[in-house]
Design the sequence.
């Protein structure tokens, strides 16, 4: 079983996610900390890091599991559908580097 990240490491991870990842809606970029999604994504990705299983496919799957309510909750989309491929690639690289540093 993978060791969970300590709270301090999870906070660092949330800051990294906030800096690297944004939603792209009609070419408008909303970073995950502004959307209050950085901690949720960090928590979702923490298991990947603890398991040493960070790659493009697992990060994409992780983002697919985070549901984002839209229109006051009238509908939801997966975070994966709202984050452009380039930002997912940068997030994946940042997560890999974070995993190596802990």
Sequence:
């Amino acid at each position: 079983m993978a060791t969970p990240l300590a709270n301090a490491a999870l906070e660092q991870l949330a800051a990294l996610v906030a800096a690297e990842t944004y939603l792209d809606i009609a070419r408008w970029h909303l970073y995950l900390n502004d959307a209050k999604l950085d901690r949720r994504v960090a928590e979702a990705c923490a298991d990947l890091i603890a398991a040493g299983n960070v790659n493009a496919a697992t990060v994409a799957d992780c983002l697919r599991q985070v549901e984002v309510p839209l229109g006051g909750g009238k509908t939801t989309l997966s975070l994966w559908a709202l984050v452009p491929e380039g930002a997912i690639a940068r997030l994946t690289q940042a997560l890999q580097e974070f995993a190596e540093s802990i």
